[in-house]
C-alpha cells in the first residue's frame, strides 16, 4: 500500500475499470502514516521487479498494471508492461522510511489539492512533478499477513550470525580464517553441525596422528 503525504493520510487506489485516485485510510493509529494498513482491496498493489532492469511494476487488484502517461495522468488499464508502466522506487535521502516513485521520464508521483469545486473533494494524484518535494514523499506499507514472514526471516538471519569466539568455543580450540569461513557458511546453508564435527575430527587426527 502506498501511503500518500496528505492530511489526513490517504492511499493510492484504483477501481475495477482502472481509474486511479486517493482513498482515505481507515486502518491507522492516531493518524500516523507508519501505522497504516489496507482496509480495502483497491488500496493493494502487488510489486514485482521487471526482469533485467532495476525498475518495478505495480499490479492492481483487478490484474491490470499501474501506468502514468506522458502528461502525468495515472491509470491502471494495461495488461502488459511498457515504459509507461515501469517505475523506480527511490529512498528519500533525508527522510528515513519514505520513498519516491519515479517514472522513466524522471518525473515523480505527487499529490495535489483537488481542482474540483465540490466541498471535501479528495486530493488528486499526478505523475508530472519534476522535483522531490514533501508532496512526492510517501510510505510503502505491507499487508499485515506478510509481516510474520519478514520477522521470521530477520530472526533466521540473526541466528546465522555467530562470533569467532563462539565458533572457537564450539570447536574447542583456536581456528584459522579458512575454518571460520567454512563454519559461518555452514550456519547459513544449514549443515553447521556436520562441518563442525568434521573440523573436530580433523583436530583429533592432528593431535594424535
Automatic annotation (TrEMBL):
<dbReference type="GO" id="GO:0005730">
    <property type="term" value="C:nucleolus"/>
</dbReference>
<dbReference type="InterPro" id="IPR008999">
    <property type="entry name" value="Actin-crosslinking"/>
</dbReference>
<comment type="similarity">
    <text>Belongs to the FRG1 family.</text>
</comment>
<protein>
    <submittedName>
        <fullName>FRG1-like protein</fullName>
    </submittedName>
</protein>
<dbReference type="GO" id="GO:0071013">
    <property type="term" value="C:catalytic step 2 spliceosome"/>
</dbReference>
<dbReference type="GO" id="GO:0051015">
    <property type="term" value="F:actin filament binding"/>
</dbReference>
<keyword id="KW-0539">Nucleus</keyword>
<dbReference type="Pfam" id="PF06229">
    <property type="entry name" value="FRG1"/>
</dbReference>
<dbReference type="InterPro" id="IPR010414">
    <property type="entry name" value="FRG1"/>
</dbReference>
Amino acid at each position: 500500500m502506498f501511503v500518500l503525504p496528505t492530511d489526513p493520510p490517504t492511499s493510492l487506489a484504483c477501481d475495477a475499470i482502472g481509474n486511479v485516485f486517493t482513498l482515505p485510510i481507515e486502518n491507522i493509529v492516531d493518524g500516523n502514516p507508519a501505522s497504516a494498513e489496507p482496509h480495502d482491496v483497491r488500496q493493494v498493489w502487488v510489486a514485482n521487479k521487471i526482469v533485467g532492469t532495476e525498475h518495478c511494476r505495480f499490479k492492481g487488484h483487478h490484474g491490470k498494471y499501474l501506468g502514468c502517461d506522458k502528461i502525468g495522468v495515472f491509470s491502471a488499464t494495461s495488461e502488459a508492461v511498457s515504459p509507461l508502466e515501469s517505475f523506480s522506487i527511490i529512498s528519500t535521502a533525508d527522510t528515513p522510511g519514505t520513498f519516491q516513485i519515479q517514472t522513466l521520464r524522471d518525473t515523480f508521483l505527487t499529490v495535489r489539492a483537488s481542482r474540483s469545486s465540490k466541498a471535501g473533494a479528495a486530493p488528486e494524484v499526478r505523475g508530472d512533478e519534476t522535483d522531490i518535494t514533501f508532496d512526492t514523499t510517501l510510505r510503502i506499507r505491507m499487508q499485515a499477513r506478510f509481516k510474520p514472514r519478514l520477522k521470521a526471516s530477520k530472526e533466521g538471519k540473526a541466528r546465522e550470525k555467530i562470533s569467532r569466539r563462539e565458533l572457537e568455543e564450539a570447536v574447542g580450540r583456536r581456528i584459522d580464517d579458512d575454518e571460520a569461513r567454512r563454519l559461518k557458511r555452514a550456519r547459513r546453508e544449514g549443515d553447521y553441525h556436520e562441518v563442525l564435527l568434521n573440523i573436530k575430527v580433523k583436530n583429533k587426527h592432528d593431535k594424535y596422528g
